[in-house]
Amino acid sequence: MILLLWIISFTFPGSIYSGDRIFYYDARSMASGGASVVNANGVNPAVFPENRFRVNFIYNPVFTSEKRGLRVYDSYGNNMGISTIDENVTSTDQYCGSLAIMPLNSFYLGCRFVPAWNFSYNYRHESRDDFYQLQSIEEITNQGAIDDLEPMIGLAIGRISIGVSYIIQYGNIHYRYSLITNSGADSIMESSTSYQGSTGRAGIYFKSKIGLDLGYVYTYRSSLSANNSGADLNYPTTQVIGFAYQPANRLPTRLAVELAYEKWVQPLFVYKLGIEHHVTEQQALRYGFCLLPDYNEKSIWTTVFCIGYGMKRDRFMVDIAYSYAKRDYSSYSLNLALPENLYFSESTNNIILSVSYYF
């Protein structure tokens, strides 16, 4: 039982601490590995608005699968396979009208709404005796997210844009625990905690004549207070620098690279890479890659592979993207006097659809 409780707390640490990072903004940024500092839709409040009012909407179903188990060895030390302890799937849907930009000559006004940290998580464990008779069912469910509502203002002159934003952070996290057993009284515990806080963000975006775009975003740290006796949620100061390059009038392919520095207790870096290839002037294929270290233990990594498609017409754009994420524990040294044959496998399948309309 102690081993099982440890496995529960070890996997998906985001649902226990400050949430799991949502590494993308919309379908275009996801397909590009999350790189968005030098994209039209992204975390950078510095943008180059077109001369039309634009609204962007997102639909985002997420499917997460995890396995917990033990590696099984024979008497000669050969790996015979995996004895699965648990296998769970978490499914969530996120709907949000994500972005509106209104140009006012060289100035522009905008507002963005997007989930930033995900707390959705499901765990179910069935205990059985030596005769495979069900003894108990234990379930843990977390639901919720921390959302960002971000009004922004900026100035775009020539090849440079500067923008600032004020971020209102809020969310509600619902927790439910149930234990159904045939050897004692059943138990159910539920709690709901609301959080609220704010922070600020500033960015700059530069477009050169040679097809090289540069972007930089600074986000100040924040602390979200709980409406009850629960612990506050704390998020770090973040600095993101990125560049994109597409040879002018030569190749229909754009390369974007992004590096983020997050000042947690243990500072860490997040790496993002994206490629956008225009098949025609109205259609694009995108490929991306992202490396996300865990903010509690830097030796635990999540690797994300992404692919997407975009289509643009006169008044609207449609983008769709898919990502597969795998969390890796192989480089993590347990050092907890626990069996070395512990096995963890966590993967996430993510689909996102973005639609932009120009008035």
From TrEMBL:
It comes from the Bacteria. Gene3D superfamilies: Outer membrane protein transport protein (OMPP1/FadL/TodX) (2.40.160.60). This is Uncharacterized protein.
